[in-house]
Amino acid sequence: MHGTLYLIPVPLGEDAWHTVPEFVIRQMHELDTFIVERAKTARHFIRDTKPPRSIGEMQFYELNEHTQLPEKEALLAPLLAGKDVGLMSEAGCPGVADPGAELVKLAHQKGIKVKPLVGPSSILLALMASGMNGQQFCFQGYLTAKKDQLGADLKRLEQLSSKARQTQIFIEAPYRNNVVFETALKVLNPATLFCVATDITLPSEQIQTKSVAAWKQMPPPDLHKRPTVFLLLA
After folding, report:
1. Could you list the mean pLDDT of each consecutive 10-residue stretch along the chain, which spans 234 residues?
2. In this structure, are strands 85-88 and 4-8 parallel, antiparallel, or unpaired?
3. What integer pLDDT is reported at residue 30 of this predicted model?
4. Strands 59-62 and 33-36
5. Alpha carbon distance 2, 232 (integer Å)
6. What's this model's pTM, rounded to 2 decimal places?
7. Reduced to 3 states, what is the DSSP secondary structure of residue 74?
């Protein structure tokens, strides 16, 4: 019998482990082997939950955007040998905007049971709080990193949204958030709704939805190096 791959959500920021349901933490405490995006972050989170065994007794294997396919296949070895393993992202839900998705795909191919657990997802929480269309939405991931093409990328999403009244959701590297916000106000139509959801679930959380025209009438938020989800609806 193969082991089960548990998909374990983690907090969206420092000192927010309480946002992960208690039953998820109980399940995590039953495991001693984890595949994680960054071992240091995973150890810190698990330690905060006061596990019944020491961190030194646990095994951590890293999986990130640089992990090659043969290495990913090797990570499944404990599961194929019958051991339950936890998969954890750097923040939020594993497999969503996360390199763990490829490992989950491989697990299905090998007949390994995959068990998703409930926890914070910045994408869904932002959509819930935005007031935008929750029936039709699309997560676009990261937009172009080229500043001179960012405006065209934003206009493309606005056009997609306008055709089907579909909410467009996207993220950016935190140090580029301010550029995205400034560019959006320059290129989007005044009536387009634009939501900025920052530091979700943290004490500094700020979620605001306004028309582009309304955003232009107020001081811009400081988004530099703050985890942010952007949403627009034309």
Report:
1. 96 88 97 96 93 96 93 96 96 93 97 97 97 97 91 97 96 95 98 98 96 97 96 98
2. parallel
3. 97
4. parallel
5. 43
6. 0.91
7. helix
Residue 190 to residue 76: CA distance in whole angstroms:
50
d(CA 102, CA 92): 17
Q: How far, in whole angstroms, is CA 3 from its chain's centroid? A: 25
Please calculate the CA angle 65-50-63 and round it to the nearest 5 degrees.
10
Q: What is the pLDDT of residue 57?
A: 95
Contacts of 116 (CB under 8 A, 6+ apart): 7, 93, 95
What residues contact residue 189 under an 8 Å CB cut-off, 6+ apart?
A: 158, 212, 234
Q: What is the pLDDT of residue 70?
A: 93
Which strands sit side by side in the sheet containing 193-198, from one edge to the other? 137-142, 167-171, 228-233, 193-198, 206-211
- Structural contact between residues 227 and 13, judged by C-beta atoms closer than 8 angstroms: yes
For 210, the 3-state DSSP assignment is strand
Specify the amino acid at residue 67.
T
Q: What is the pLDDT of residue 16?
A: 85
Tokens of 175: 């140090």
Instruction: List, in sequence order, every beta strand (DSSP E) within the chain.
Output: 4-8, 33-36, 59-62, 85-88, 113-116, 137-142, 167-171, 193-198, 206-211, 228-233
Q: Which residue is it, tokens 């009244």?
A: 165
pLDDT at position 17: 83
